[in-house]
Amino acid sequence: MAVDVRPPAAPSGRRPPRPGLGDTLRQAWREYRSMRTALVLLVVLAAASILGSLFPQEGLSPQRVDQYFADHPALAPVLERLGLFDVFGSAWYMAIYLALLGALVACLVPRSRALYRVLRSRPPRGGDLSRYRTRASFQTSAAPDEAMAAARRVLRRSRYRLADHDGELAGEKGFLREASSLLFHVSLLVLLVGLAYGKGYGYRGQAAIVEGETWANARVGYDSFSPGRFFGPERLAPFQLRLEEFTNSFHPDNTPREFASRLTALDLDGRQLQSQRVAPNRPMTVDGVRIFQSDYGYVPVVRVQGKDGRDLVAAQEVLTLRDPASEWSTGAVKVTRADPQVGLELTMFTGLVTAPDCPGGAPFCNDPRLVRPVLVVLAYQGDLQADRAQSVFTLDRSRLELLGDRPLLLVPGQSKELANGMVVSFTDLKQYSVLTLARDPGVPVVAVAAGLLLGGLVPSLYVTRRRVWARAVPDGAGGARVELAGLALQGKAAFEDELARLAEQVRRGTLDAPDRSR
């Protein structure tokens, strides 16, 4: 008589019970701690990081942010509210980061427990070996116990972990793959922690140093300074930098080839610590601070005298902004002691070329090599509004009028008179180097994470999980029938040949058994 063991059907008209809040929370927790969620959050974090390269960042280039506001006055305030000018310090970026850290920890804890339980457990029984697709069997004249001893020797040489189950030998190997996979995910967690530690306790800043001058590593010396959340200016390493020489060179087609600074690091007492030539791909490290070559520019030395010969501006070094496309530079001199006040707009050419030698019929152009420096001075007079914050590289011309009808063209060592009788002199020309200084204490942690990442990735690619079972039963003629079966969790196509080799090695091992008929 057949017995129906199916559960009774639910009464018609009744809906299945709706999941409660606890069921929903448990399901959400299971989804959150899955590796799938961690991978999705990692992709989202990478996509969010791309935004940091698409928009200028306040901590790295405040000048470019200001320029973006000037170029896009309607869009820039919206982007600022969204935190796109400070992506890596925004609340939404930190939320993604913390969610990823939490997902990795929540994923790794149960996986670690599972690996621990597997390592402590014995290889399981195989049951009915005929149900496995990968099998091998053979007849041997050796007794069953001798055949099992041969199988044990072969599997042990093949690094299988063995267990006896009442006449059945079970072997298992490949746990290194699981451990390596766990190590790989641990390395991601260490990597994220190292990045956060480096950003929180490090800093990045930029400083411009003129040739022959010495710069002190103090907060006031930085043109831009972006400290980590837990980094204070009092932690700045005590050293000085002297720019001994700056050189730049160009290819025959006038495209940039190289620019480099020869720097000398000094302690606060002026003793030399080290000296090195710093190029864009060759930084210098001083007391844990890495110094990169990032840009350069030109420093015309300008002197302004009144009609009576009195110095209104005495040999002032004027830092100019270099246009990388044309290699000419612009700057400004503000003569606040004049009455009325005078502002000078400076444009410096490294090699002024005039028509017809310029391409495209242009009236003038510039040779990027420092072969014929010319300083073009355009003068204005009026109110410089010096009591208001403004850029040192430009003039606010809202209350200024043009002085004279033509600009002055000066070469180094030359002086010329303005329309109001003032004398402008181009006394010297220097160069300056823009250096990026960065301290990132998380680099050793990231290096350890990279080693763990490699150590976890390689075994997980080449190590495969295997289970093998062996049995030997009497064949009725004084020998034994040996059966082997196996299960491959990875690399299933190659496992048939592998099991066949194991069976052949066991068969040969039984032939070495002592002859019991003698």
Report on the architecture of this protein:
The chain has 518 residues and is an alpha+beta fold. The chain has 4 domains: 25-116; 129-161 and 464-511, Alpha-Beta Plaits; 200-296 and 436-442, no CATH class; 298-432, no CATH class. Helices cover 31% and strands 32% of the residues. The protein has helices at residues 21-32, 35-54, 62-71, 75-81, 91-120, 144-157, 175-201, 443-462, 492-511, and strands at residues 134-140, 161-164, 168-173, 203-210, 214-216, 224-227, 240-250, 256-266, 272-278, 284-286, 289-305, 311-317, 321-322, 329-335, 341-349, 352-354, 364-366, 374-382, 400-402, 408-410, 414-417, 423-439, 466-474, 480-488. Strands 4, 6, 10, 11, 12, 21 and 22 form a 7-stranded antiparallel beta sheet that branches. Strands 13, 14, 15, 18, 19 and 20 form a 6-stranded antiparallel beta sheet that branches. Helix 5 packs antiparallel against helix 7 (175-201). The protein starts with 20 loop residues before the first helix and ends in a 7-residue tail after the last helix.
Number of helices: 9
Number of extended strands = 24
Strand content: 25-35%
Count of discrete structural domains: 4
Low-confidence stretches: 1-8
Globally, the shape reads elongated
Characterize the main sheet. Answer: 7 strands, antiparallel
Radius of gyration: 38 Å
Mean pLDDT: 88
Query: Helix/strand-derived class?
Result: alpha+beta
Share of helical residues: 25-40%
Distance between the termini: 60 Å
